[in-house]
């Protein structure tokens, strides 16, 4: 007798997610297959986690190799795969030291504690964020998230949070002068907040203000990192080096892993016992993360940037053809969004009918987060289907 997985989920799992009516049986490359043997082109890759697609053969091999050695050992022992991943991340970014966590929200929580330590020693307090920003759902991260529908009426920690309009350097300086915060934290490309790209001019101006007012510049690259925007991390499009870099999602090769990278000159603020976790860094996730970085640096990163440019060009073409349906095209690399002006509430379902999986965020923004192994033929399939949907309206 075939199991009704959807009914069982509704019976045994708390309903905190609005799921599609798809029960996944298998994933391979750019595709997933459901229990009914329907195959779908996957264009949000586990919300930007599966940067090399599903079941990449080299990751499966690495998974087997590390699993045959050891899985979990705790932080009372030196963890060779984690040390190797930390070295690779630092060498690809800037000199510093890493604290590993299990997720994006945990990375944000670690950053909050680090910022607090910095603030205590430098007579500063609080964190500055963009209006309408998203930084996670655990209580500390939730206080930094400036979305009422996410914040609701959950209790909040007592540290001060100050918000300002993105790209407004004058307003940012006023906040620095008035409140003397310890840190500025933002995503270089909004994720859940709407896919807007923060300009290089703002990032470089913010760096200068942080230096002037002794404020930490913290970049939340949980979603933008691991090649999502065409560079390994989005801050690398600028001449700026952050003080604290938050990462997660794709860094574990499909398994839970995150963390913060703190610049070398600031690495003394965390001491033994200041923070910790049972599971991170998982030796298996660390080994997969190291292998993922190697594959990205061997050519996938460059290919993904090219395909991302092609996808954005094709979206712009559709926007010009159907201005009453498609508004602004946003994003960078393979982190792209299209503002949908009509019928946005049914668009995801229409794509499912075409055997394509997409994500909607911020009510009416079509968000595309495909695996970085995507090819132009996959883009063509998506664009052709999108145009067919528009013509059917």
UniProtKB/TrEMBL annotation:
One of its GO terms (molecular function) is pyridoxal phosphate binding. Belongs to the class-III pyridoxal-phosphate-dependent aminotransferase family. It comes from Clostridium aceticum. InterPro entries: Aminotrans_3, Aminotrans_3_PPA_site, Class-III_PLP-dep_AT, PyrdxlP-dep_Trfase, PyrdxlP-dep_Trfase_major, PyrdxlP-dep_Trfase_small. Its cofactor is pyridoxal 5'-phosphate. This is Acetylornithine aminotransferase ArgD. Keywords: Aminotransferase, Pyridoxal phosphate, Transferase. The gene is argD2. Its EC number is 2.6.1.11. Signal peptide: none annotated. It comes from the Bacteria.
């Amino acid at each position: 007798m075939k199991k009704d997985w959807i009914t069982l989920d509704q019976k045994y799992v708390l309903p905190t997610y609005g799921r599609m009516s798809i029960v996944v049986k298998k994933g391979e490359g750019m595709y997933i297959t459901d229990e009914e043997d329907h195959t779908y082109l996957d264009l949000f890759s586990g919300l930007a986690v599966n940067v090399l697609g599903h079941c990449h053969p080299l990751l499966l091999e690495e998974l087997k190799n590390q699993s045959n050695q050891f899985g979990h050992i705790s932080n009372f022992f030196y963890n060779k795969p984690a040390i190797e991943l930390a070295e690779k991340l630092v060498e690809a970014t800037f000199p510093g030291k890493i604290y590993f966590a299990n997720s994006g929200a945990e990375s944000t929580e670690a950053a909050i504690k680090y910022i607090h330590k910095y603030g205590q020693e430098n007579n500063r307090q609080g964190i500055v964020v963009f209006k309408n920003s998203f930084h996670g759902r655990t209580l500390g991260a939730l206080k930094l998230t400036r979305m009422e529908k996410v914040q609701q009426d959950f209790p909040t920690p007592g540290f001060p949070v100050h918000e300002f309009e993105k790209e407004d350097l004058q307003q940012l300086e006023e906040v620095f002068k008035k409140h003397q915060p310890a840190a500025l934290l933002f995503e270089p490309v909004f994720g859940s907040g709407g896919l807007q790209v923060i300009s290089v001019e703002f990032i470089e101006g913010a760096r200068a203000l942080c230096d002037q007012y002794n404020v930490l510049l913290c970049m939340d690259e949980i979603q933008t990192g691991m090649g999502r925007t065409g560079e390994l991390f989005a801050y690398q499009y600028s001449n700026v080096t952050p003080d604290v870099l938050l990462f997660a999602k794709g860094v574990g090769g499909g398994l839970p892993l995150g963390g913060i990278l703190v610049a070398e000159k600031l690495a003394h603020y965390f001491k033994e016992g200041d923070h910790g976790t049972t599971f991170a860094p998982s030796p298996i996730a660390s080994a997969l993360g190291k292998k993922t970085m190697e594959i990205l640096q061997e050519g996938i990163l460059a290919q993904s940037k090219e395909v991302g440019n092609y996808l954005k060009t094709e979206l712009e073409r559709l926007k010009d053809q159907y201005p009453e349906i498609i508004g602004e095209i946003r994003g960078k690399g393979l982190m792209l969004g299209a503002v949908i002006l009509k019928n946005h509430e049914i668009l995801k379902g229409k794509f499912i009918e075409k055997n394509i999986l997409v994500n909607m965020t911020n009510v009416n923004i079509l968000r595309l987060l495909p695996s970085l192994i995507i090819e132009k033929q996959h883009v063509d399939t998506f664009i052709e289907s999108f145009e067919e949907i528009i013509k059917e309206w």
